[in-house]
Model the fold of this input.
Amino acid sequence: MTDPRKALVVPPGRDWSLADVDPRDTSLVGDKEKAKERLAADADSIAEWQEKLFAERRHALLVILQGTDTSGKDGTIRGVFGRTGPMGLAVTAFGRPTPEELAHDFLWRIHAACPRRGLIGVFNRSHYEDVLVGRVRKLADPETIERRFRQIVEFEEMVASSTTILKIMLHISKDEQRERLRARLDDPEKTWKFDPGDVEDRRHWDEYQAAYQEVLVRTSTKIAPWYVVPADRKWARNALVAGLVRRTLEDMAPRYPKPDFDPADIRID
Amino acid sequence: MTDPRKALVVPPGRDWSLADVDPRDTSLVGDKEKAKERLAADADSIAEWQEKLFAERRHALLVILQGTDTSGKDGTIRGVFGRTGPMGLAVTAFGRPTPEELAHDFLWRIHAACPRRGLIGVFNRSHYEDVLVGRVRKLADPETIERRFRQIVEFEEMVASSTTILKIMLHISKDEQRERLRARLDDPEKTWKFDPGDVEDRRHWDEYQAAYQEVLVRTSTKIAPWYVVPADRKWARNALVAGLVRRTLEDMAPRYPKPDFDPADIRID
Done:
C-alpha cells in the first residue's frame, strides 16, 4: 500500500469536494486479504511506536474520529488500536454535553481530555459536533458557528505545541447507513446501540453532508489536516486508518530516551 | 483451572500471612502451555462480558493492582485486557502526587478516576500507596496512617454502591526483583523503565512486606476483598489475574438491555 495520506487529505486552502469521495472505494488497499494483512502489520507497528512515545514522553498523538452515525468509529478504534497497550491509550467518547459541560465554553471538555505527552489520545466524536449538529439542528446561531470555526483553528494550533493532531472523517454512503441501522434493529445483541434519534438525523442527511463539506474545507490546516476515509467497507476503512496512524507515528519518530546514569554503575544487592 | 478466588483471597477478619504465599507457586494453573490457553480464553471472555457491561450501563468494575516495583503491573494489564475494546477500559496509573493532588485529600485523585457505570477501570497503583510508601518512607505520621485505613474502608464501601471492586496484589520474591531490575539495566530498550529510586526502595524490602501484610489484613473486606497472586512466573500471574477478573464479571452477569421500543416498528427510509 502506497502512502494513503496524499490521496485522502483535504488539501488546506484548496478546492475540494466531499461528493467526489466514493465511500465504496477500495483502490488504495487492494483486496480484502491483503488489507487485513496490512492492518495486522500496522496495528503491531502502532503498538511498538506507542511504547517509544510513552518512554520518551516528549509528544502526544491525538486522533480525532468523526463520521455520521454507524460510520464505524467504535469498530475502527477496536481494529486499529486493538494491539496497543491499554496504558498508553486514552479514548474519550463525546456524547450530548452534560449540564456541567454546557455551563462552560464548548472547548472546555475537549481540552480537559487532550492526551498528555507520551500518550495516544483518541476522540470518538469531538468539538466538531458543535459545528455539525450545532448547525444542522440549529442549536447555535450562525454567528456562534462562525466564531467556533475560528476558535477551533486557533485552539488546535495551540494544542499542536505538544501534540500531533490527526483528524479523520469516516465517510459512508446513505445506503450503507440504512443497512447498518437495520442490522442493529435485527440483532438483539446490537439493538442497544440503536438510538431512535439516529433515524431523525438521517432525515437531515444532505444537510449533514453540506455541513461536513464546510467543516472539512475550513478546518483542514497545515498543522492539523483532515483525511477522509472511504468507510463503506470495514476492512478497507481499518487498513486505511491504521496506515494513516502508523505513518504519522513514523514521522514523529519517538525514541527510547538515554538514561542520565550509566547502567553499569548501578549495583543491586 | 478451578476457581482461584478461594485459594488467593485474604479472608476478611481472619488470620492470614503474606509470608505463607510462595511467589513461585504455579499449582493453581497447571503447566505453562495450559496457562496460556486459559489466559487467551479468559481474555476473550472478559472482552465479551465488557461489551454487555457497557451496553447495560448499570455497574462498573474497578480492578486495583498493587505490588512492589517490577511486580508486573503493566504486563498484567496488557496480558489480561489486551483483547478488551479500548472504549470500555479506563486505565489510570498513579505516580508521585502532583502539587495539585497534594493540595487535596489523598482520596481526591482516586475518586476522580473511578470508572463510571459501564466501564472497567484499572488502577495501576492506587490509594494504597498512601499507607504503604507513606508508612515505610515516613511521609505521614502514624495517626494519619491509622486514619487513612479507616477512610479507605469507608470510601470503598461507598464506591461499591455502583462498582464491583477487585483488589489484587502481585507478589514477587526479592530474588525475582533483582533479576528484573538487572534486565532493565541490561536492555537499552528497557532502561527508561529503571528508576534509581527503585534500588532505594529495595533496601526497605522487609518493611514493605510488613506494610503489605498489615494493609492486606486490615483492608480485605467482604465488599472489597484482596487477592494475592504469586507473580514470579509471568504466565501463571496473567492466567490467575484473568481468572479472577473473568469470574468476577460472570458473577456481575451484565446483560444486553431490552429496548424500550419495538424494533419492528422502526422504519428506515
In short: The interface with chain B takes residues 55-56, 74, 77-78, 81-87, 89, 91, 93, 122, 124, 178, 181-182, 185-186, 188-189, 191-194, 196, 199, 202, 256-257, 259, 261, 263-264, 266-269 of chain A (CB under 8 Å). Chain A is about 50% helix and 10% strand. Chain A has a mean pLDDT of 96. The longest strand of chain A covers residues 163-171.
